[in-house]
Amino acid sequence: MGRPKSPIWIDLLEPTEQERECAAGITGLRVPERSDIVNLALSSRIRTDDDAMYLSIPYFADTNNGHAAQPVGIVVTNHVLMTLRFAESPAFDLANESCEHQRWESSADVLATLIEAIVNLGAQRMEDVSAELKKLSDRVFTPERLGTPVLRAIMLDVGRLEGMQARNRSSMLGVQRIVSFVRAKKLDWISDSVEIRLRVVEHDLRTLDEFDDQLTNKLQFLLDATLGFISTDQNHVMKVLTVTSVATIPPVILAGIWGMNFKNMPELDWPWGYPMALAAIVISMILPVWFFKWRGWWSGD
Fold this sequence. Notes:
Magnesium transporter; CorA_TM1_TM2; cell inner membrane; MgTranspt_CorA/ZnTranspt_ZntB; transmembrane helix
């Protein structure tokens, strides 16, 4: 029995062993194992084997739902593109839907469409992170005084956004390596139009890399600012406690003196000794507080 006619794109989503054998029989290509895709050696992740290019993205996550990154393998020849993935992907769905609007001319055309979809959605995710950062920044830098619980919640949001951006970064880095590798090969079956599209994608990836640096710096700045506000809030509490403790020292001293049980204490014979002692204790508390307010050490509290 002859080999069936090969389609232009075979997309394997968590394939069974039978599906892997069927794809290998249709394309005549070796379907990579998951261990091959996640191999740390760059030579194992991006290489050529005869007329086929074996490409992979070890950490690929194109959603902001917090799911762990999954590897993606890509095998491309001059007649077929085969992809191997282990999770649902909006980018793959978007690339698949594009065939309804334009006719694919070659496997390289499909590869360029898939890469463009990944990059476009990656850019959208970065825009989403940037928009959320703007909202968090408005929450942090407000004239109202925020308490530590609110600031802690903001720090958790910053950590969540950093995780999202880290997943975006890993995905875009894998795509950038693939685009650079494919363009460097300069294969004859990659048309000029596809080459132009890949060049545009490579430029977009460099722009996104600069945008990623800006977002990373913004995240770090927002985290530092939140920690600074928490420290300031704690300093306010310590300042109030310090003023309170200083204001209570004179009354404690006066109460200690007048509370001594000596027989010959002149204050015991004073008709107004008790109210005078109370007044002296109150005045001794008011004077330190007034002094702190006068020097501006208690302003804002």
